[in-house]
Amino acid sequence: MRANTMPSKSIARNASTLSCLLLLVAGCGDGGGSSDGSAAAARSYEEEFRLALETAVPGDVIEVPRGTHAFTRSVTLNTDGITIRGSGMNDSVLSFAGQIAGAEGLLVNASDFTIEDLAIEDTVGDALKINEGRNIVIRRVRTEWTNGPDAENGAYGVYPVQTENVLIDGAVAIAASDAGIYVGQSRNVVVKNSRAEYNVAGIEIENTIHADVFDNVARNNTGGILVFNMPDLPQLGHSTRVFDNEITGNNTANFGAPGSAVAGVPAGTGIIINSNDKVEIFNNRIGDNKTANVLISSAFSAAYSADRETASEFDPYPEAIYIYDNTFGPGGTAPDREELEALRQAMFGADGSLPDIVWDGIVNPDLDNPAQVICVEDDDATFVNVDAGNGYQNPDTDIDAHTCRLPKLVEVELALAP
Amino acid sequence: MIGASSTRRAAHTFGGLIALLLLSACSDPPQVRLYGPDAYPERLSAWGLLERRGDALVLGAGVEPYEIGTPLFSDYALKLRTYYLPPGTAMRYRHAESFDFPVGSVVSKTFFYPTRGGAVLASSGWDGDVDGLDLDEQRLVETRLLVRQTDGWDALPYVWDGNDAYLRLTGDVRPMQIALADEMVPLAYVVPARSECASCHATDHTDGRLQLIGLKARHLNRTYPGSPGNQLSLWAARGDLTELPLPAEVPRTVAWNDPNADLAERARAYLDINCGHCHNPAGAADTSGLLLDAHTTSFRQLGFCKPPVAAGRGTGGRPYSIVPGEPDQSILVFRLETTDPATRMPETGRSLSHREAVALLRKWIAGLAGECA
What does pTM read for this prediction? Predict the structure, then answer.
């Protein structure tokens, strides 16, 4: 990757460009107009950073110094091959608490992009959005709304969409009003060593093909890790592996915007698979999620589309879901859905819990073998098909029909430099 | 410098050439000069495209104003649009896409407001009379250039300060007070950074190349204010435009504010120019699955009963982009009414709500038949 092999020369060059511009602007005051304070703005780090991005050439490394740097407008990068590097996610902070314009903090429309060791705080909308691009590395970046969970917070923390070859490593995402780490409509993705807390959705993989999500911590979100397919989009996702994660205590009340997809996530959900295919869940520690440790549903029982039209070409059914070797803690003790709570009491008693794996039971009528939908190879896992398609009339905890194996998915290999 | 200064038409004749050689007096129009990507001038006046002389704005020789039927809303700013073609060249007509301009072309858009006291006025339009413009009663804010270099269009934002405008690659914020119909409100007018020009002009977000937006047949197929005859016919007649088909074959979108035009066509014209540069099948907003350009025919893709994908609180708590008959349930109306930077649309270039357009879209949606399941 170019960004890592080219010399770091940008700061000096950009600093001199900036001085040049300042001198020229200062020399132009012959018109008698006032400068409206723009000269003061031009001296700020915001302007320096913005100018570095505007004038960047492939190979540039833009270093963000220590300190909290105030931004009033979103910043856009359109140049390939750029690295943005801070001194640490607690030391180099881009703060958008005073933002007046732009829907993101940092918007990147470029490939071969690396961002590392900094934080983006308190943006009005998404913190870091990367829209189309290949070879994206997001390393030790923190996105946070410092006021904690709030419906007025921005939607997404780390948000690559329509990207390919994406590494998110060591990120921290806190208090997004939608998803902390949200990978949309992408291909070949690794999310690892990251921590998502106090978001509505901790980590969400949506309409993405080939994603590995491992060694992460998702706790204190409304839902921990989500693997979704949404209708009306150019790409339907499949083939996601979720393994070696800690997914615990995701019981924060849902503070998502009504009408958004995650507004339908019940508080207290560890993993949710919705309408996605070929999802492998293994070797995770999942517990203390009060609705369900694992929830598997079709689009029909997801609140985002329960009473809405679905595009005809959309596949609403989850299929080829393979769950094995996980360690389950307590869960399903107090479901955040009336019908699930009623079911818990009816089936498992006042002090009982829903099983570890809860499935809405809605299948494609063209399939005749339930093993094509879900296979479970967890010795201690408990299971329930809640029969949501028939008004929860015949829930079934028999796991035998789902004791089966599916071909394992291959590891995601990123074509990135180390 | 990649081009010579001259007036385009003067260079066609010997007499014109003599006239060109004699040009020097201050009353003569500015002469256009072109610059390569590494040598952009700090001052707008260096281009010779338009110049402030006292209280008059003077266009450069060969710089032609034009108007489009339905413009992008930019916080009620008025706009003077011009194009410049190198001598002896012409733009090539295209049916749906923007016209094909030769290297060395420059398109400009100057944003200005009428003023009263210390405030600027929200205004619905102007008469297009550049010569009649009294800058003592107008506030020039910015001039954006699109320059056709050998490898494509390049965007440059210039911000007015006194008698000239100055290149501001990082954009700017210009605080002002604006008088709307019934109230005075503060306006933090945002001049886009150069990269943000691409937020609209990279209409194919995958290739990222800047494109013209307004210079398309369907937007230009009209008269220039105060001028007789169709703009495109005039351009073809003076040799600026080639391959113009017969008038009946040239598409035309209605003016969004034409009370005599079809309501749905007015609404679609507004959505096309204000949203279609991102919300098209190749645009930055194809991630949403919502397509609002003129060529989209699927009701679902246009937002009818379409749930949001990644709107976050941009839903405004509403279920679908458009709920027929229910403007107050339609996300699209929320997005255009709100001034919250996190949720307003378009994301770039608007701080105020365009009340008259919102009223139009409300009326359109209120009259739509059907219901969402």
Answer: 0.89
